Amino acid sequence: MAKIALALQSLISLVTAAGSGAEDEMRKMNRQVALWKNDAAVATNTAISERNVTTVRQKSRLVKASLVLDAAVTGTATDFFTVLIDKRTAAAPATPVNLITFAADTPTTDNCVAFAEKDLLGLAAYVAGGSADFEFEEGDCVTVEITKSTATGMTFPVGTLKLEFEPRSA
């Protein structure tokens, strides 16, 4: 019984500790992580139609979006792929809200190193949505779509899209 009381006391101190960053730590521990895996490389002239990545389970904010590809990608201005990450609200699912547009169309800026995380929120050029668009309600969906610039396009390698949502109260 004493061990249970001690464990509860420890939890209470985490929640009530003022000014210690405990609230931030609790939010990090409760993050929802969603993964979308592309299991096979997609040919240069083939797109991937919009598909659901996740349905958000609580009020939250998208705080991280990254792409890890299994092959290197060098940006090119003529033949490239574009990753579109959209939000579809539970209230108006027919209307997508574009959050992130990553086009592999600029050498250096848009290059992807094989097996290295490409931060999709770290460069303002990729962020299409406004601040409020990154706020989610329970039941909202996030989708991904891969388009190609031309009929020849660019191969979209095997890889994983990772999204992290942090709980919010308001």
Overview of the structural elements:
The protein has 170 residues and is mainly beta. It folds into two domains: 1-30, no CATH class; 31-167, Jelly Rolls, CATH 2.60.120. Helices cover 14% and strands 36% of the residues. It contains two helices and nine strands, in the order H-H-E-E-E-E-E-E-E-E-E. Strands 1, 3, 6, 7 and 9 form a five-stranded antiparallel beta sheet that branches. The mean pLDDT is 87.
Number of alpha- plus pi-helical segments: 2
Give me the strand/helix succession: HHEEEEEEEEE
- What is the percent of helical residues? 10-25%
Query: Radius of gyration, rounded?
Result: 19 Å
* Unreliable residue runs: none
What CATH architecture of the largest domain would you give? Sandwich
Count up the domains. 2
Question: What fraction strand?
Answer: 35-45%
Overall pLDDT level? 87
Report how far the terminal alpha carbons are from each other. 37 Å
Q: What characteristic shape results from the CA principal axes? A: elongated
Question: Using DSSP, what is the number of strands?
Answer: 9
| CATH fold assignment of the largest domain | Jelly Rolls
Class inferred from helices and paired strands = mainly beta
> Main β-sheet, in a few words?
5 strands, antiparallel
Identify the CATH class of the largest domain: Mainly Beta
